């Protein structure tokens, strides 16, 4: 006699709904539970379709591009975590448009993804349409979204603490005597940019807004931002990515100045080649390995026992890696005259 | 009445074997043929299991790592080609050991990959055990293997023409007056390294072997190789990767010399940040977009009409991208004294 769901459920100590999910190869059951259900089903003599018995978890991962090495690192670390847990990674890159992003996520679901991780997707934009995330979540698909938080999506959110990232870089530069700091950023509609700009503004007090150059997260964008910010009197530049920072190094050189003698430059991401620029970059390192572990755990355990993913939020503190692109401020700033100190107060002092 | 395979085969103008493959969701049928078969089956009233009807192609892709940006570029371009054809990419990185590589390829097959692409895997080593490739191939799995050729695997091989890569770099440096060229390479057991070294040796004639430094394909490896090769009197260094070349730039600086005034450096891959080093790298560019298209086409169309993949080999010519890391040889070499010209002949002259 074919065992009933309830028999299997009792033996495996789970709900009937969970047994049904496992036997129908639906997402949202973690590997341990799945194994227990399959073992109970086998022990009770239930025949299992081959597809269910041998199925390993597939997880869809979407990253913006791999030209920025930090996104390649994200993909690599997430894959390593998935592999360790017996799961395989479906990777897609360059969502470009919202439509393309929707198409990718739907394709992940269609080919059998049991969870989806999105790094810096449209969930990172304040006003983007995110109905495709909501639809997947409503279907019970575990979602983990990196570096961007939206109140209207049920997902596990894992982000770097952007305020802290700015704070550690600013503290380092202040210790070196810099008072006129500039911020070089990309698209201001995105969560990490807004968070960093707000933090930067909070660190400035009394008076004029601190200098922020909005270009884009590229080498050319960094070059252009550096020229603008040095033109506005900055002796130190915080960049939104290492790629931007590499461009900023060249922008400073293009002005006939030297890094770090005349201008200090701080990168962001501490990507693998931050140590390879000349001079090597001081950079703020996101804790990609820990964050990758957190998102993988979230999607593989996300929907257990319920069709509804649980909404969670985690922020992780970054750390500053000091190398050769930052040094003491030029003499004028190290020993500021009273009038200069006054000017500093209106910037970030 | 349930239509027979032969009816569907006639309507779709394919063999019965192909119809059987499609209806059983087995690999080795290209998307156009698959669609035609499914359409014919539907038109004749054959019910299709949901898994077959909605199934989209999954292709497994294995790259060595993503720290070297050229491998990130490979993954990105292959994914773009797959996406365009309605397929999704399973990505795994860092095979490390042969055992791990075997495990990854088997997992690809288990989760339903309909083809597998390996970039610079163990197929690139002359003597590595490649039985796992042969087993998959024997099961009808289409394989496409990049930058490495083994006579004992049935697969589509697509490689950059390494001899040509060395030739264009050497020609460029000779035009600039360099006669003492050195080669900086990684693991000499791999196909691309052997091909490049052989080409480099062919370009040297009469007498002593040209200077080759075997370190590894890293920044530190490039640094060390540059110190060694400059110590052996080289005024120009061909590197096996851009990462090595970045290290070589710093190695030359560490000796108190300048690139390109005293020593010219040529990279390999022309990865995205070759233009971001200081000075920007002259580099040999592999035709990754074209090669990615070729391997994707090979795996998606590979096994059609037969369980046995067809063995094919293609080599693609690279191109030299000239930037700021190469310049005229130092005066001594531009106007060589007779004794120096004699020495040049024994090197690469």
How is this structure best described in words?
2 copies of one chain form a homodimer. Chain A is α/β, with parallel strands linked by helices and 349 residues long. The first copy, chain A, has 3 domains: 5-52, lambda repressor-like DNA-binding domains (434 Repressor (Amino-terminal Domain), Orthogonal Bundle), CATH 1.10.260; 57-160 and 287-317, 3-Layer(aba) Sandwich (Rossmann fold), CATH 3.40.50; 162-286 and 321-346, Rossmann fold (3-Layer(aba) Sandwich). Helices cover 43% and strands 15% of the residues of chain A. The first copy, chain A, is built from 14 helices and 12 strands. The first copy, chain A, has helices spanning 5-12, 16-23, 31-43, 50-54, 69-84, 98-110, 131-138, 162-175, 191-203, 219-231, 242-254, 288-301, 331-334, 338-346; strands spanning 58-63, 88-93, 116-119, 143-146, 156-160, 181-185, 212-214, 236-239, 264-268, 282-285, 312-316, 319-321. In chain A, the strands form 2 sheets. A 6-stranded parallel β-sheet of chain A has the order 2-1-3-4-5-11, with helices on both faces. In chain A, strand 6 (181-185), helix 9 and strand 7 form a beta-alpha-beta unit. In chain A, helix 1 (5-12) crosses helix 2, helix 1 packs across helix 3 and helix 5 crosses helix 12. The longest helix of chain A is centred in the first third of the chain and has 16 residues, at 69-84. Residues 303-307 and 333-349 of chain A have low confidence and may be disordered. The A-B interface holds A 51, 54-56, 58, 65-67, 69, 72-73, 75-76, 79-80, 83, 88-94, 104, 107-108, 110-112, 219, 243, 246-247, 249-250, 253, 272-273, 275-278 and B 51, 54-56, 58, 65-67, 69, 72-73, 75-76, 79-80, 83, 88-94, 104, 107-108, 110-112, 219, 243, 246-247, 249-250, 253, 272-273, 275-278. Strand 2 of chain A pairs antiparallel with strand 2 of chain B.
């Amino acid at each position: 006699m074919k065992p009933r769901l309830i028999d299997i459920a009792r033996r495996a100590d789970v709900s009937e709904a969970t047994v049904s999910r496992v036997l129908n190869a639906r997402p949202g059951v973690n590997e341990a539970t799945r194994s227990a259900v399959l073992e109970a089903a086998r022990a009770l003599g239930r025949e299992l379709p081959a597809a269910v018995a041998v199925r390993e978890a597939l997880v869809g991962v979407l990253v913006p591009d791999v030209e920025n090495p930090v996104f390649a690192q994200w993909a690599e670390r997430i894959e390593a975590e998935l592999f360790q847990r017996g799961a395989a990674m479906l990777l897609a890159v360059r969502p470009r448009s919202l439509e393309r992003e929707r198409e990718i996520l739907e394709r992940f679901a269609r080919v059998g993804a049991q969870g989806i991780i999105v790094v810096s997707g449209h969930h990172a934009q304040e006003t983007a349409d995110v109905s495709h995330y909501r639809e997947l979540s409503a279907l019970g698909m575990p979602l983990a979204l990196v570096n961007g938080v939206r109140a209207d999506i049920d997902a596990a959110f894992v982000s770097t603490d952007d305020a802290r990232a700015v704070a550690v870089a600013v503290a380092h530069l202040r210790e070196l005597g810099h008072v006129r700091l500039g911020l070089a950023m990309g698209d201001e509609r995105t969560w990490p940019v807004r968070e960093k700009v707000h933090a930067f503004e909070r660190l400035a007090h009394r008076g004029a807004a601190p200098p922020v150059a909005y270009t884009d997260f590229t080498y050319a964008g960094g070059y252009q931002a550096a020229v603008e910010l040095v033109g506005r009197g900055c002796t130190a530049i915080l960049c939104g990515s290492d790629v931007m920072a590499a461009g900023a190094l060249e922008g400073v050189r293009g002005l006939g100045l030297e890094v770090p003698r005349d201008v200090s430059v701080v990168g962001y991401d501490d990507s693998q080649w931050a140590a390879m620029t000349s001079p090597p970059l001081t950079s703020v390192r996101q804790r990609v390995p820990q964050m990758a572990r957190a998102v993988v755990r979230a999607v593989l355990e996300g929907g257990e026992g319920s069709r509804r993913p649980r909404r969670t939020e985690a922020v992780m503190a970054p750390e500053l890696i000091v190398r050769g692109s930052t040094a003491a401020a030029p003499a004028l700033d190290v020993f500021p005259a009273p009038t200069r100190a006054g000017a500093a107060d209106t910037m970030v002092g």
